[in-house]
């Protein structure tokens, strides 16, 4: 019996040593890439402009002119940057029985590349400020909630368009209808229609079950949600750790290596329902969520779903931290 115990302990120690060595090898490779790979600069001023431009259309609420105009602008920007663009139009029913005309916007860069990663954000705005202390029916800008992630991805698209070559293929999906779920604090008895898993994240549910290209796949995905507010921090979200811990490790390690450890905090927190859930469950693409978490308060920040979510909270430094990290992830990836 004592011999068996010693053998098991030795085996456990050996496995731990192998994991430590493997991690060290990966960090050495990353350090080498920091020296060898030329990563384009992420322009925070440009990203800020893209956030501001979206806000200038007004709240991007489905079935409104502001929503349509903003969507057209996003499509035209991607085309301007040389992407292969697909508009996936569809209809969905909201929790309050409204028929919504929605549009997922997909932009492909280097479409011939076999190695691909998927970057995503949602581009719609919630139709009411149900966490606002003054007026729960008010409209709000959604500068952080929606526009910040899209702004970062538009700047990445602009950067990719300026490069002579790219190491891998990059696909950007802007999901629609993410933010129209039930009002916070209200009771709703409406049952979900057949084929719908949640009143939230309508665009990612639709795309994940009916992709724009039948055989589309990617090595992994990264979702951005609320990534522009001043002094934001991004903890390791629970569902990301469940479905794609290797991607979390890759992104947070790179962020820390290039100087953004104050933003990308290596601490685990709980899971949330966001677009990455449905990409993982239905599209079977391991996707993580980079989403603001405020220590002591929880996810999203005190301005979430309120009139405080406007350009006054947007920080170029935060946009830079997220955008630079993503560009390094792209250019460090092996083709």
Order of strands, widest sheet:
1-2-4-3-5-8
Overall spatial form: globular
Number of DSSP strands? Answer: 10
Rg, Cα atoms, Å: 21 Å
User: Biggest sheet, in brief?
Assistant: 6 strands, mixed
Mean pLDDT: 91
Structural class based on helices, strands and sheet pairing: alpha/beta
Count of DSSP H/I helices: 9
The parts where pLDDT drops under 50 for at least 5 residues are: 1-16
* Helix share bin: 40-55%
Quaternary status: single chain
Separation of termini? 50 Å
SSE series: HHHEEEHEHEEHHEHEEEH
What share of residues are in beta strands? 15-25%
Concise overview:
By secondary structure, this protein is of the alpha/beta class. It is 41% helix and 17% strand.
Descriptive account of the structure:
By secondary structure, the chain is an alpha/beta fold. Helix content is 41%, strand content 17%. It contains 9 helices and 10 strands. The protein has helices at residues 2-36, 44-56, 65-80, 143-161, 202-209, 238-243, 245-257, 275-283, 316-332; strands at residues 84-93, 99-109, 116-122, 169-175, 220-225, 234-236, 264-268, 287-291, 293-294, 298-299. A 6-stranded mixed beta sheet has the order 1-2-4-3-5-8, sandwiched between helices. A two-stranded parallel sheet has the order 6-7. Helix 4 (143-161) crosses helix 9 (316-332). The protein starts with a helix and ends with a helix.
